[in-house]
Write a structure and sequence with these properties.
With 122 residues, the chain is of the alpha+beta class. It has 1 helix and 7 strands. 20% of the residues lie in helices and 45% in strands.
Length: 122
């Protein structure tokens, strides 16, 4: 399969909760993220080609905020596995410059954490 992503994704060290801001319901957990998209482990099957306004709840604040919000389209969604877990891929379609910057800072933080873990294991 040909890679079509424009931005490299980084794996989240924690499964951060993802909320649908219109329903205020947790729809899943963040698995990986880039400025252009994300992979989510979902609590319910996610239909493809549906538009969402999402909020990723952060474990630590970035620039005084504890969440990142953006509009995204579900590009694909898998049916639930044996454990009832579904997987879904999203493309970011609407995001403020501030939230792009927060994602960049979050990805840098994750990279530093990964580097620290690798150095500690040497």
């Amino acid at each position: 399969m040909t890679e079509r992503r424009q931005h490299q994704r980084s794996r989240s060290p924690q499964l951060l909760p993802v909320y649908d801001t219109q329903t205020q319901q947790c729809v899943g957990r963040l698995v990986d993220l880039s400025i252009g998209g994300m992979l989510m482990m979902a609590v319910q099957p996610i239909p493809a080609h549906k538009i969402y306004q999402l909020r990723v709840k952060l474990s630590d604040q970035i620039e005084g905020l504890d969440a990142i919000e953006f509009g995204a389209e579900s590009v694909w969604g898998d049916p639930p596995e044996q454990m009832g877990i579904s997987w879904a891929g999203f493309q970011v379609i609407d995001i403020s410059d501030q939230n792009k910057e927060r994602i960049s800072k979050l990805l840098e933080f994750w990279a530093e954490q990964e580097e620290d873990l690798q150095q500690a294991s040497i």
